[in-house]
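RECORD TYPE: protein structure
NAME: ATP-binding protein
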Amino acid sequence: MRPAQPPGESFALPARDTSVAAARRRVRHQLYGWGLPSTTCDNAQLIVSELVTNAILHTQSSQVRCLLWSSGQVLRIEVADEGSGPSHGVPRVADADAENGRGLLLLDALAARWGVISPDHWSGCTVWAELSAACDRVPQPRWRNGAGPGPA
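PREDICTED:
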């Protein structure tokens, strides 16, 4: 008997600008369905938005694929395109007036880890990110002897 696989979801969208919002909606729906913390869901939507946008703007892809996987402690996001990969996988500092160029800085700030799976000539490029999926709820106080707040 095989062990149960952690929750995972994948989807493909056409490489056009309307797919960025569609990707965000799919991610939000899936992650809230898994019961992940709202902070994780919000950060994941931002990351997917940036990675899908980059795939659409900087490649000649006809589609963009997204994979979401959660172990309960870690959320992994992968966005794959049909391009040759980024010319550099290092965040750069954009000029104050620049309209773009901050996506990898945002990714670097939000993700616990991220990287690029080296593309080959046939399969395109995959950028991945991992976020903490641990609960962000505030622990409730434990009162001694079942009593409420106040002197013990």
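COMMENT: The two ends are 52 Å apart (CA to CA).
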